[in-house]
Design brief:
Layout (H helix, E strand, L loop, with lengths): L2 E3 L12 E6 L5 H9 L17 E6 L3 E5 L10 H17 L3 E9 L6 H12 L4 E6 L9 H12 L6 E4 L8 H11 L1
Parallel strand pairs: 2-4, 2-5, 5-6, 6-7
Antiparallel strand pairs: 1-3, 3-4
Length: 186
């Protein structure tokens, strides 16, 4: 990790474009970052949900930052702390001029949660380019992938400009398509 921040005064100053990654705790944000840049523990993964409590900026080839935001929806984090995370995330998403898009990760094994729907509605309202990535697809039988697409699309009410990509950090499925989306939005 290149930098951690909790407020705008701590954000990187170089002006590189940024792509944010958001999702529930343990959905696979760090695993996606590691798969994208092909390094095993560049972004630390944790078996303990709710571990990320800052905005973590990962510089990639001096071209962009991937920004891991705190996971939402984890019950063991106090309501006060969750509200602080919400304020920190909202400030970042609504004021950061170099933010070029957001990747919202959802667990491909389950329907998106209310928190996922709220996050998607929030970024849609602010017209932030969005890619939905359904993770952990290696744990879903191939003949169920269309069902995953249908459930995620229906639950989030994905509109035409947004895209959905199936992904597995285990098999690397979807890696190239995620990079393609990122590059199109830089």
């Amino acid at each position: 990790m290149d930098l951690s921040a909790v407020s705008a005064t701590q954000y990187p100053k170089e002006g590189l474009p940024e792509i944010a990654l958001a999702g529930r705790s343990n959905v696979g944000k760090s695993s996606l970052i590691n798969t994208l840049i092909q390094r095993k523990s560049f972004a630390r993964t944790s078996s303990t949900p709710g571990k990320t409590q800052t905005l973590n900026f990962y510089e990639v080839n001096q071209k962009l930052y991937l920004v891991d935001v705190p996971g939402y929806g984890y019950a063991k984090v106090s309501k006060k702390r969750r509200a602080e995370f919400g304020t920190m995330i909202e400030e970042y998403l609504t004021t950061r001029k170099v933010l070029k898009g957001i990747i919202i990760l959802v667990d491909g094994r389950h329907a998106p949660s209310e928190d996922d729907v709220s996050m998607y509605q929030f970024v849609s309202y602010y017209k932030i380019p969005t890619l939905i990535v359904a993770t952990k697809m290696d744990k879903v039988k191939k003949n169920q992938w269309n069902k995953t697409v249908a459930v995620v699309t229906k639950t989030l009410q994905i509109n035409q400009r947004d895209q959905l990509q199936l992904f597995s950090s285990e098999t690397k499925f979807g890696r190239e398509k995620v990079w393609q989306w990122i590059n199109e939005h830089l």
